[in-house]
């Protein structure tokens, strides 16, 4: 062991192991040592000759010494040699699983002999070339070097990768599903689809990001890039987005998962939409949080629906329209009747308010009654987008159009974009829901529940289902508003009609009412006689067996 400082360390660590200038390889301390650590030894060591006698050592740390002559145990699984003045090519021992070689002057890292290398930390060197061996590298830190390529066949598997502060112009292949990538402070202008949850590409030369560019990202930093051609989309999983100091003028649609958004010192002035959990910080955004106005070039239209449905109760088959007797008699309330029935709306509300002028409209666009539009997440597909359960009140016209409370059409929805199944409910009819989902984004979705050939529902869900007929309607007679038609037995829909007319004299008639017992919606409640409200219930459960039941179908 020619290095006097190294001998002094050995004698201090394993008393009696040094004899003259030699180290006794049979010394029990030398034989039993599993770790060699000279990193804190105060006297500089330049020659490691003699450390090879530590045949059972698996961990070696020789950092902070100006190593000129390299030697060591045959199988150091962990090798740490930071700030040692190493230069040129460094050959990693074949049994190494972890090497840390930071703050040296190495230009070429040769890992070609390794069998199970899992960690490579070599930041702050002068690396220009890498030669890979086998194994699966889980941690790779090559920041602050001069690399423009990772070389061929980098064995990265779910790896944490840091290649920041290098000379990359394109993002290299990062192996199978990297865990994180920090490629900031390069000259990157191009990249493929990066399947990685944590991505830092700040301080590069990226002009555009396609909609599926970072499809699995939860954290994405694109700050200090030009982005002059736009950020065209983000991942559904994205929780944090940083686009500070760019030329980006408009943000893409912001998905539900987004919590933190940083875009200060970019020309962005408004938000396309506001996810429910987004932290609205003026300091982080660079502007007062506000949704883009319809006149803004960054405006994104909310989801809307061009929806048609018919109610069996007021439907006139000869005219192909519903009658509007409730409106004509001034019986339709100006306030939503469904909360009083125990219905609770889901979602973020609706943009319109009731306008009494809609009740003055006559003809096919005259209002028939209030309905509920109920959107359910389409769980029949793998990714329904940002869809959440959403419902809102609306008004139904004689021709079947479902309009806003101010008469607007298509119907505006304050719900995130995604795939939904559309349902319509009414206070004394069974609801119906589409069998398949539709994608709701910025273009109006057309759903026509009146036509069998236009929109698929579940078998028997509506009156008039037929391969040839196109006059479907919601089944009438759900007087109890419990999603079921019953003529006899507990909770039936016939008895409430008798009770509504007094409960004793079946020939009584109650006129000029807005009531669930008014099954045909003509403004009066009748238990017997022509146009009564009881017979439709019996007919809709089959017309023969009074104990039969018809259930609302298809709802989650």
Structure, described:
The protein is mainly beta. Among the domains are: 190-300; 304-448, no CATH class; 484-551. Helix content is 6%, strand content 23%. It has 6 helices and 34 strands. It has helices at residues 4-13, 28-32, 282-285, 325-328, 495-500, 535-540, and strands at residues 18-19, 22-23, 35-37, 59-61, 78-80, 87-91, 98-100, 105-110, 119-121, 129-131, 137-141, 156-162, 180-182, 198-200, 208-209, 219-221, 230-231, 240-242, 260-262, 304-308, 315-316, 321-322, 367-377, 390-397, 402-403, 411-412, 418-426, 429-433, 438-440, 445-448, 484-486, 509-511, 524-526, 549-551. A 12-stranded parallel beta sheet has the order 3-4-5-7-9-11-12-13-14-16-18-19, with no helix packed on it. Strands 23, 24, 25, 27, 28 and 29 form a 6-stranded antiparallel beta sheet that branches. A hairpin with a 4-residue loop joins β21 (315-316) and β22. It is elongated and about 125 Å long.
List how many beta strands DSSP finds: 34
Q: Give the overall form.
A: elongated
Average predicted confidence as pLDDT: 95
- Read across the widest sheet, the strand sequence of neighbours is 3-4-5-7-9-11-12-13-14-16-18-19
């Amino acid at each position: 062991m020619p290095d006097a400082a190294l001998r002094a360390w050995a004698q201090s660590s394993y008393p009696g192991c040094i004899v003259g200038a030699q180290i006794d390889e049979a010394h029990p301390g030398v034989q039993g040592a599993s770790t060699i650590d000279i990193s804190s030894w105060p006297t500089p060591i330049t020659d490691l000759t003699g450390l090879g006698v530590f045949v059972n050592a698996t961990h070696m740390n020789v950092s902070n010494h100006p190593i000129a002559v390299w030697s060591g145990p045959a199988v150091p699984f962990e090798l740490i040699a930071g700030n040692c003045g190493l230069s040129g090519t460094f050959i990693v021992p074949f049994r190494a699983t972890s090497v840390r070689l930071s703050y040296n002057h190495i230009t070429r890292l040769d890992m070609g002999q390794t069998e199970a290398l899992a960690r490579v930390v070599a930041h702050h060197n002068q690396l220009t070339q890498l030669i890979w061996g086998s194994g699966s590298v889980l941690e790779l830190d090559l920041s602050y070097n001069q690399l423009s390529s990772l070389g061929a066949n980098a064995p990265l598997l779910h790896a944490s990768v840091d290649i920041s502060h290098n000379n990359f112009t394109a993002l290299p292949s990062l192996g199978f599903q990297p865990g994180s990538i920090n490629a900031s402070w390069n000259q990157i202008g191009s990249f493929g689809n990066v399947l990685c949850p944590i991505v830092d590409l700040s301080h590069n030369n990226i002009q555009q990001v396609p909609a599926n560019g970072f499809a699995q990202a939860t954290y994405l930093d694109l700050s200090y890039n030009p982005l002059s051609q736009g950020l065209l989309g983000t991942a559904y999983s994205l929780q944090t987005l940083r686009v500070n100091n760019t030329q980006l003028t408009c943000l893409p649609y912001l998905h539900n998962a987004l919590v933190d958004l940083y875009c200060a010192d970019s020309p962005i002035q408004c938000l396309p939409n506001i996810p429910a959990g987004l932290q609205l910080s003026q300091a982080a955004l660079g502007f007062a949080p506000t949704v883009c106005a319809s006149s803004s070039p960054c405006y994104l239209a909310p989801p809307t629906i061009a929806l048609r449905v018919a109610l069996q109760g007021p439907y006139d088959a000869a005219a192909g329209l519903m009658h509007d007797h409730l409106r004509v008699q001034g019986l339709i309330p100006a306030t939503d009747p469904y909360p009083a029935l125990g219905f609770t709306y889901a979602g973020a509300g609706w943009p319109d308010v009731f306008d009494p002028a809609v009740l003055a409209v006559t003809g096919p666009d005259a209002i028939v009654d209030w309905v509920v539009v109920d959107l359910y997440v389409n769980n029949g597909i793998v990714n329904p987008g940002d869809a959440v359960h959403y419902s809102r009140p609306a008004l139904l016209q004689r021709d079947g159009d479902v309009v806003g409370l101010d008469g607007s059409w298509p119907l505006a929805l304050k719900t995130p974009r995604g795939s939904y199944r559309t349902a319509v409910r009414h206070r004394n009819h069974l609801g119906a829901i589409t069998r398949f989902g539709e994608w709701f984004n910025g273009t109006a979705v057309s759903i026509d529940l009146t036509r069998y050939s236009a929109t698929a529902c579940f078998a028997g869900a509506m009156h008039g289902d037929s391969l040839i007929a196109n006059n479907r309607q919601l089944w009438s007679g759900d007087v109890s508003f419990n999603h079921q038609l019953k003529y006899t037995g507990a909770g039936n829909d016939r008895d409430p009609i008798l009770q509504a007319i007094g409960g004793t004299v079946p020939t009584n008639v109650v006129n000029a009412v807005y009531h669930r017992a008014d099954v045909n919606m003509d403004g009066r409640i009748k238990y017997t006689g022509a146009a009564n409200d009881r017979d439709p219930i019996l007919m809709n459960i089959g017309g023969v067996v009074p104990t039969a039941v018809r259930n609302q179908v298809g709802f989650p």
